[in-house]
Design a protein that fits this description.
Blueprint (H helix, E strand, L loop, with lengths): L3 E6 L15 H16 L4 H6 L2 E2 L2 E8 L8 E11 L3 E10 L5 E13 L5 E2 L1 H4 L1 H11 L1
Antiparallel strand pairs: 1-4, 2-6, 3-6, 4-5, 5-6, 6-7
Length: about 140
């Protein structure tokens, strides 16, 4: 199975008055991880959008293990947890850079839709390159 790790230094603007990362920022970090993961397997959301399609989030699950703080460095590990030719679920772990402390686990579920009417499309038929890359990344 293919994994990608993205490194993020916790910025002051991402924290509250206590220096703790505001919970919604983990979703932004997961999006960074997902985008970089796709690029690591030769895919770009930009190309999908240029063809008139987008890939909205259908569902999000997060489990908060321990807060991250200003000045720490996070590593977002991203992979494809499941894919059925239509829906894709990405898995995530967010740890401190030293890998010792697990802070967040999560997943996001996506489909591809036409940008103009949000009608879902089959990844297998509409984006065969994506389909093959997903299957290869899951080996």
């Amino acid at each position: 199975m293919k994994y990608h790790e993205s490194t993020i230094v916790v910025r002051y603007a991402e924290t509250d008055q206590m220096g703790i990362v505001y919970h919604a920022n983990y979703l932004v970090w997961m999006e960074i991880g997902r985008t970089e993961f796709l690029e690591s397997i030769g895919l770009r959301y930009f190309d999908m959008e240029q063809e008139g399609y987008i890939s909205p989030v259908l569902d999000v699950h997060l489990s908060y293990k321990q807060a991250m703080k200003y000045g720490q460095t996070a590593v977002v590990k991203t992979w494809i947890k499941s894919y059925d030719g239509f829906r894709v679920v990405y898995g995530y772990e967010i740890r401190q850079q030293d890998g010792e402390q697990l802070h967040i686990t999560g997943e996001t579920e996506h489909i591809a839709v036409r940008k103009d009417d949000f009608k879902p499309v089959s990844m297998r038929r509409t984006f065969p390159k994506w389909h093959e890359a997903y299957l290869e990344a899951m080996k």
